[in-house]
Inverse folding.
């Protein structure tokens, strides 16, 4: 049985949103709470990357802050490897729901990311060193680029997820 760590990537600056979007409220909870809830049924444990405070353990992005989602993923992979997890299932704090079709396809693939939302992915913990080295060397910080370089596939093109980058996006989601 594969032991999966769930990780919410939450280290962004939210410049387009204007405030801390992880704490923005939607329905009955914060966007961060919704992202954690979307991972929980599929994971043995949950963490949040790139934040100081969350309702679950938090870790700092690696090898440094401000590297975008790959810094959070690097931290999650290192944490997973050090704590006996086989893989990391990721989402972003501004993605409040992951469709079941995407999770099923990721779990079947073993190494993939959602074509339309590359922060949603399943990543083997063994990739920790290669990603950290990639970032430390100043490599391209696009998840899509790095995923292609390690042979991860983009699954389910055309299947979209709600993503909140601006207050208008949150308002549209509420409607």
């Amino acid at each position: 049985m594969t032991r999966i760590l769930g990780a919410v990537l939450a280290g962004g600056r939210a410049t387009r949103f204007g405030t801390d979007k992880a704490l923005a409220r939607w329905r009955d909870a914060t966007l961060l709470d919704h992202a954690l809830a979307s991972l929980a049924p599929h994971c043995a444990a949950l963490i949040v990357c790139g934040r100081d405070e969350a309702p679950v353990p938090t870790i700092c992005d690696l090898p440094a802050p401000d590297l975008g989602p790959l810094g959070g993923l690097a931290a999650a992979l290192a944490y997973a490897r050090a704590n006996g997890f086989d893989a990391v299932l990721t989402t972003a704090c501004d993605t409040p729901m992951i469709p079941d079709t995407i999770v099923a396809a990721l779990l079947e693939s073993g190494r993939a990311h959602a074509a339309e939302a590359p922060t949603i992915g399943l990543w083997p913990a063994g990739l920790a060193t290669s990603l950290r080295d990639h970032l430390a060397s100043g490599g391209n910080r696009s998840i899509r680029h790095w995923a292609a370089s390690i042979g991860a596939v983009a699954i389910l093109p055309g299947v979209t997820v709600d993503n909140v980058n601006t207050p208008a996006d949150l308002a549209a989601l509420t409607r």
Residues 69-82 form the longest helix (14 residues).
